[in-house]
From TrEMBL:
<keyword id="KW-0496">Mitochondrion</keyword>
<dbReference type="GO" id="GO:0031966">
    <property type="term" value="C:mitochondrial membrane"/>
</dbReference>
<dbReference type="InterPro" id="IPR049563">
    <property type="entry name" value="TXTP-like"/>
</dbReference>
<dbReference type="Pfam" id="PF00153">
    <property type="entry name" value="Mito_carr"/>
</dbReference>
<protein>
    <recommendedName>
        <fullName>Mitochondrial succinate-fumarate transporter 1</fullName>
    </recommendedName>
</protein>
<dbReference type="InterPro" id="IPR018108">
    <property type="entry name" value="MCP_transmembrane"/>
</dbReference>
<feature type="repeat" description="Solcar">
    <location>
        <begin position="210"/>
        <end position="299"/>
    </location>
</feature>
<keyword id="KW-0812">Transmembrane</keyword>
<comment type="similarity">
    <text>Belongs to the mitochondrial carrier (TC 2.A.29) family.</text>
</comment>
<dbReference type="GO" id="GO:0005469">
    <property type="term" value="F:succinate:fumarate antiporter activity"/>
</dbReference>
<feature type="repeat" description="Solcar">
    <location>
        <begin position="13"/>
        <end position="98"/>
    </location>
</feature>
<feature type="repeat" description="Solcar">
    <location>
        <begin position="110"/>
        <end position="198"/>
    </location>
</feature>
<keyword id="KW-1133">Transmembrane helix</keyword>
<keyword id="KW-0677">Repeat</keyword>
<keyword id="KW-0813">Transport</keyword>
<dbReference type="InterPro" id="IPR023395">
    <property type="entry name" value="MCP_dom_sf"/>
</dbReference>
<keyword id="KW-0472">Membrane</keyword>
Length: 310
């Protein structure tokens, strides 16, 4: 086969390698950024204005509950991130394969958007919603004395929710989670590819491995778009997941009712509560995840899909 014809259709990285790269990136990200996620959740659940901002919220948690409280919910968070990125990266690669041009093997931006949205919906229903319900229930508990806490840990929390609210209680807030994650991933995968090409002239399948700092810049920039667009979905998701039936009637009946209630009672800006900690959490998280994932997929690409230049 001639060099020209072999270049017409570039070899691609298999979905399982994308999944592995995502899972390892998720472990590193979770360990680094859990405190910001705890602060974000506390701010979103703060209806009475106890916390004056990110720093005040963090310092209050440390002062009243100890430093360890900033890592509340780490076990479900780390497990959730690892599974989420495994499914996200793997399913996105599978979806993209359906949109690849049969001649060149390239994927259009439309294909990337649809693939990203599909991966986001899949992760929201299969992994994100039940894990975040447990995580948020654990994070909203104040204090560190186990005997004073309703939920003693992730497993106990999940069992309690199922016993009191039924299995579907673990999927509270599924609708805004699907909307948030689908939109986020559609934007993120498309933007990441665009920044790789624009900033570093990196095309998938070209055999080049980005430096970790280059991946971090592309990942950080790609991770900034989603939180601004999906802020209301994230706030509503958190409120729906945090409420339980133990007090009788639920305050929020669903996604649309929650948006209208929050807007009526707290104003328009309340729908973007926690945006700053989300921007402190998601773009750095994407930077860390992509720095790890790009190295793994890049090494695979260079070793198995291309002959290293002499």
């Amino acid at each position: 086969m001639s060099q020209e014809s072999s270049n017409d259709k570039k070899p691609t990285i298999p979905p399982y390698m994308k999944a592995i790269s995502g899972s390892l990136g998720g472990v590193v990200e979770a360990s680094c950024l859990q405190p910001i996620d705890v602060i974000k959740t506390r701010l979103q659940l703060d209806r009475s204005g106890n916390y004056k901002g990110i720093i005040h919220c963090g310092s209050t948690i440390v002062r009243t509950e100890g430093v360890r409280a900033l890592w509340k919910g780490l076990t479900p968070f780390a497990t959730h991130l690892t599974l989420k990125y495994t499914l996200r990266m793997g399913s996105n690669a599978v979806f993209q394969s359906a949109f690849k041009d049969s001649e060149t093997g390239k994927v259009s931006n439309h294909g990337r958007l649809v693939s990203g949205f599909g991966a986001g919906v899949l992760e929201a229903l299969a992994i994100v919603t039940p894990f975040e319900v447990v995580k948020i229930r654990l994070q909203q508990q104040k204090g560190l004395s186990p005997e004073l806490l309703k939920y003693k840990g992730p497993i106990h929390c999940a069992r309690t929710i199922i016993r009191e609210e039924g299995v579907l209680g673990l999927w509270a807030g599924a609708a805004p989670t699907v909307m948030r994650n689908g939109t986020n991933q559609a934007a993120m995968f498309t933007a990441k590819n665009a920044f790789d090409v624009l900033l570093w002239k990196k095309q998938e399948g070209d055999g080049r491995v980005l430096q970790p700092w280059q991946s971090m810049i592309s990942g950080f920039l790609a991770g900034t778009v989603g939180p601004v667009c999906t802020g209301p979905f994230d706030v509503v998701k958190t409120r729906l997941m945090a409420q339980s039936r133990e007090g009788g009637e639920l305050k929020y009946k669903g996604m649309v009712h929650a948006i209208r209630t929050i807007y009526a009672e707290e104003g328009l800006l309340a729908l973007w509560k926690g945006l700053l900690p989300r921007l402190m959490r998601i773009p750095p998280g994407q930077a860390i995840m992509w720095a790890v994932a790009d190295q793994i997929t890049g090494l695979y690409e260079r070793r198995y899909l291309h002959v290293a230049p002499s």
